[in-house]
Design goal:
Layout: H1 5-20, E1 43-50, H2 58-65, H3 68-76, E2 78-85, H4 88-98, E3 103-107, H5 108-116, E4 122-131, E5 133-138, E6 153-155, H6 161-172, E7 181-183, H7 189-194, E8 200-204, H8 205-213, E9 217-222, E10 231-237, H9 239-244, H10 247-265, H11 271-274, H12 281-287, H13 303-318, H14 328-331, H15 335-340
Length: 342
């Protein structure tokens, strides 16, 4: 059932990560990280994010909104430039390979892909260790639970973490995934679901909640009660940057840690820094209602997080999405975490 996944990987990863990480505005993918220095004397570090506009997410967005990123970077002699990549993971990996970016906030799976393809990067901190996914059924689909998915048309992008989640749901409900018609809606998934051209859609929990609020459909399955199916978002870096001057990495992690502590101590104030035009405080309250402790914002990696990464790596290997083995202990480097949080 996993034939030709490798051929579909690049467009699939682009779609999946664009959907799971909210962003807006114009792409900032210009220039090279080698062009440094400003009139203020601060060196520029370039931080990539999936989607357009270079918008940060989760605890990274909180750290920026609270001013911690600017504060810590400036103290270390740096300032940040945020770069959005509409093609998400694959484009970010290409930018890493070309030395055009210094850091990225994205999912672990493209980082694993990069490492397998010979791109030397390091995962140095967590941005969130609980990123949730969901399946939303169209309002006229006749689907009331996951058991009804057999024989239906489902938007689930092959070769991505979203597809892995969907395959696991099918297995748990004794559904032969080959009985499901997969719909490849790369840029218009929302309208395809709304128009009835697809019966269900596998996407980020936050995006599914937004669609549900708009009356497009009903969430029938999600990962908020299934810790094994959640993933994380991470801060990845080029080793060249880390070896030349680790202070920018330490500064970013300090900012993330301060934001995580703020969230745990002031959970009622978090939404004010995360809200956008599309994600109101009311919607954010639903997104985080499964656990308002915000303990998962801590940049340290938990045992559960390592399990998530191992599961993704196993999925990629079993389905021939990667051609070379990856030493996960080499990919995930806590050296800078330890220095930032003594």
């Amino acid at each position: 059932m996993f034939k030709n996944l490798k051929k579909l990987l690049l467009p699939a990863m682009a779609l999946a990560l664009s959907l799971t990480l909210a962003g807006c505005g114009n792409s900032g993918n210009t220039g090279s990280s080698k062009e440094r220095g400003t009139d203020t004397g601060l060196k520029t570090i370039k931080i990539a994010t999936p989607g357009q506009g270079g918008v940060l997410v989760e605890n990274a967005m909180l750290a920026k909104g609270l001013g911690y990123i600017d504060e810590e970077l400036e103290a270390a002699g740096y300032k940040a430039e945020y770069m959005g990549f509409a093609q998400a993971g694959p484009a970010i990996n290409e930018a890493f390979a070309a030395g055009e970016i210094d850091y990225a906030v994205y999912n672990e799976l493209p980082a694993i892909m990069a490492k397998s393809n010979g791109i030397d990067i390091k995962i140095i901190a967590a941005v969130t260790q609980d990123y949730n996914y969901a399946i939303i059924a169209g309002k006229d689909s006749g689907i009331s639970s996951a058991k009804d998915l057999s024989g239906k048309k489902v938007i689930a992008t092959t070769g991505t973490i979203l597809y892995k989640y969907f395959a696991d749901v099918c297995k748990a409900n004794n559904i032969d995934i080959s009985s499901v018609e997969l719909v490849n809606a790369q840029t218009d998934a929302n309208s395809v679901l709304a128009s009835g051209q697809a019966d269900a859609y596998v996407t980020a929990y936050s995006a599914a909640l937004q669609l549900e609020a708009a009356g497009t459909g009903t969430i029938i399955e999600d990962t908020t009660n299934n810790e094994e199916e959640r993933t994380g978002l991470v801060l990845a870096a080029r080793p060249e940057v880390l070896s030349s001057d680790e202070n920018s990495a330490i500064a970013l992690i300090k900012a993330f840690k301060k934001a995580a502590d703020f969230a745990k101590e002031n959970p009622d104030k978090v939404y004010g820094y995360l809200k956008t035009e599309n994600y109101t405080e009311e919607l954010l309250d639903k997104i985080y209602s499964y656990d308002k402790s915000f303990s998962y914002f801590d940049p340290y990696f938990t045992d559960t997080y390592y399990s998530h990464v191992e599961n993704q790596y196993t999925f990629a290997k079993e389905n021939q999405l990667i051609s070379n083995d990856v030493d996960l202990k080499d990919l995930i480097d806590t050296t800078y975490l330890d220095k930032a949080v003594k």
